[in-house]
Structure formats: structure tokens, C-alpha cells
Design brief:
Elements lengths: L2 H14 L6 E4 L1 H7 L8 H15 L7 E4 L5 H12 L2 H5 L2 H9 L8 H4 L1 H10 L5 E3 L5 H17 L9 E3 L28 H9 L20 H9 L4 H9 L5 H26 L3 H30 L3
Parallel strand pairs: 1-2, 3-4
Helix pairs in contact: 3-13, 4-8, 4-14, 8-9, 10-13, 11-13
The protein binds adenosine monophosphate.
Length: 314
């Protein structure tokens, strides 16, 4: 997991745990859609690392249901039903689809599964009749598609099985990675929550700053600098000072990045340590997923029974 996940979506999840019945799904089927070669035989490790990260940032397994997508067969069943009624044009015009096909040139992503990514996601959400889905900005088109698919199902089968799930954004719904594109695992431009000191430093030192600031004596423009935007998130109380370093050419970008790296190291250290500790007992994490699957299955199977009744099969 990386900083974009935490600040873009997870922070909201953490806060909602006392208010809602929260479901956290490890999307292993989805991960395979883009990484069907690279993740083969590695999924087990990725799954437990992800759950360890979630718990380390404050997802509480005693309050929330944490489960694995592939443990609940209803996700695929519902995705099958939705795939029958989803027009291809809805998927082809989806901005995230177009963006990823454009950006991930090295991967063969013109697959049937990848085009249908939002259909499976609609099933993930609607199987639980979710009211609220905390997501980053990139997911808004998928949420809109989810609502459209749910409404289309209700309309075709003359039912009110599905209501409209709402997206919930955080204050920072789109964190940029070190190359100024959206921070993403697929773009390898991320700062991992489990990053150690040297890894964080090397990522921060390669962040793009104001391209017009060539020499330290050139005044910079914080408004277009991603390093400055990180200060605004992680140390808002010193942004005035950082602005002066930059606009007044008081400190160079290298120095400014060094200080930011230290801020991130301090911020991430307790998370990394907690996660490392959790990973020493993998069976604890598998047990959480097992009991989560039991709870998730109860809800998803009820929804699926309703779906079958509405269609008139089974
Ligand atoms: P993903 O791993 O891309 O499926 O993302 C999981 C969740 O984190 C989704 O809700 C995303 O919208 C959110 N997210 C991922 N990357 C970012 C980012 N760079 N900025 C904000 N939110 C993000």
C-alpha cells in the first residue's frame, strides 16, 4: 500500500468504522486483471502484506469486516449477471480504462477481463448494498458506472434490489506520485507505507520540482511543485516557511527534499514497525480473513438470492 491509498481513501474508512458496518475487501481478482503474469504465485504474500498495512494504519478487525474477494463466490456470480446488461460503450468510454491502456504500454491490457474491471467492481459494491464507498477521485467514474448498472438491473427486472451507493472523498482525493502522475502501484511512482528510510529518501530525492528553478539562487514557484504539495499534507504548519525557502531562494530543492524525506520517514515509521510485527504471525491475518469471509458471505448470499429471484432463475 502507498500514501495515495492512505490519504485518498483509507483515512475516511478509518473514521467511518464507528458509524457504519464497514467491509474491507482485498481485491485479489482485480489485482490479477492488470498483473496476471507478475502476481502469479505471489498473491498470498501480497494479500497478507495488504491486510497488515490496513491494520497498521488503524483498520480495526474487531469493528470491521476484512475479507478476500475470491473467498466470496457471489462477486463473480453478480459480475456475470451485470456483464449481461452492461453495454460495451459504457466500459469503453470509461476514463480510467482509456488512461491505463495509454499509460501501461508494456502490458497487454486489451483483455476482456480488464475492460470488465468496473463490472466486477459494481458487483463488489452492490453485493453488500453499500451506502457509502470511500474512494479516491480516480474511482468516481467507476462509482457512477456502479450506480448506472444497479439502476439498469432494477429497471430491466422491475425490482428495487439496488440503491445508489455514494462516493466519499477525503481532503486529498488525488495524491501525485514522484513523477507528477497520479500515485499508483502500476506506475511505480509511489511511496510505500512499508518503505524503509533509504527507500523513502531515494523516492523523495527523485521527485519533480519546479522545472524553471535551475539554480538554487533562482526563485521557485511552490504552486507548481509537488514537493510543496506534500508539505501541505504532511506538515501544514510550516508551509509559510517552506514557501519562503522557495520563493525567496533561501533553500535549494535538494535541501527542501531532504527535510521532506525526514518528515515522511517519521510519519511512516510507526506504521512500518506495526506492520512488520503483524507479519511475524501470518496465521493471525489468515484467521481475520477467514472470519471476515463468513460475515461477508452472509450478506452477499442474501443479495444474490434476491438477484436470482428478480431474474427468475434458481
Ligand atoms: P487502487 O489500488 O488503485 O485500486 O486504489 C485503492 C483506493 O485508493 C481507491 O479508492 C483509489 O481511489 C485510492 N487511491 C489510489 N491511488 C490514489 C492516489 N494517488 N490518490 C488518492 N487516492 C488514491
Amino acid at each position: 500500500m502507498h500514501l495515495g491509498h492512505l490519504l485518498g481513501a483509507l483515512n475516511n474508512w478509518i473514521n467511518l468504522q464507528d458509524k457504519y458496518d464497514c467491509y474491507f475487501m482485498v481485491a485479489d481478482w482485480h489485482a490479477l486483471m492488470t498483473e496476471y503474469k507478475a502476481y502469479a504465485h505471489k498473491m498470498q504474500d501480497y494479500i497478507i502484506e495488504m491486510v497488515a498495512d490496513w491494520i497498521s494504519v488503524g483498520i480495526n478487525p474487531a469493528k470491521s469486516v476484512i475479507f478476500l474477494q475470491s473467498d466470496i463466490k457471489e462477486h463473480l456470480e453478480l459480475a456475470m449477471v451485470f456483464s449481461d446488461i452492461t453495454p460495451l460503450s459504457w466500459l469503453e468510454r470509461c476514463p480510467t480504462y482509456k488512461e491505463q491502456i495509454r499509460e501501461l504500454k508494456g502490458k497487454e491490457l486489451t483483455t476482456y477481463g480488464f475492460l470488465g474491471y468496473p463490472v466486477l467492481q459494481a458487483a463488489d459494491i452492490l453485493a453488500y448494498k453499500a451506502e457509502v464507498v470511500p474512494v479516491g477521485e480516480d474511482q468516481l467514474p467507476h462509482l457512477e458506472l456502479t450506480r448506472e448498472i444497479g439502476r439498469r438491473f432494477n429497471h430491466i427486472y422491475k425490482t428495487n434490489t439496488f440503491s445508489d451507493p455514494k462516493a466519499l472523498l477525503t481532503k486529498t482525493p488525488r495524491i501525485l506520485g514522484i513523477d507528477n502522475r497520479k500515485m499508483s502501484k502500476s506506475y511505480d511512482n509511489f511511496i510505500a507505507l512499508s518503505g524503509k528510510e533509504e527507500a523513502i529518501k531515494s523516492k523523495v530525492y527523485s521527485m519533480i520540482t519546479d522545472p524553471k528553478r535551475i539554480k538554487k539562487t533562482d526563485p521557485g514557484h511552490p504552486g507548481i511543485c509537488n514537493v510543496f504539495s506534500y508539505y501541505k499534507i504532511f506538515k501544514p504548519e510550516i508551509t509559510g516557511e517552506v514557501r519562503n525557502w522557495c520563493e525567496g531562494a533561501e533553500k535549494g530543492c535538494t535541501e527542501c527534499k531532504k527535510e521532506l524525506a525526514q518528515i515522511l520517514i517519521d510519519y511512516l515509521e510507526p506504521i512500518r514497525k506495526k506492520s512488520e510485527k503483524l507479519l511475524k504471525d501470518k496465521s493471525y491475518i489468515w484467521d481475520i480473513l477467514k472470519s471476515g469471509a463468513e460475515k461477508a458471505s452472509e450478506i452477499a448470499s442474501k443479495t444474490m438470492a434476491e438477484v436470482y429471484r428478480a431474474i427468475g432463475i434458481k
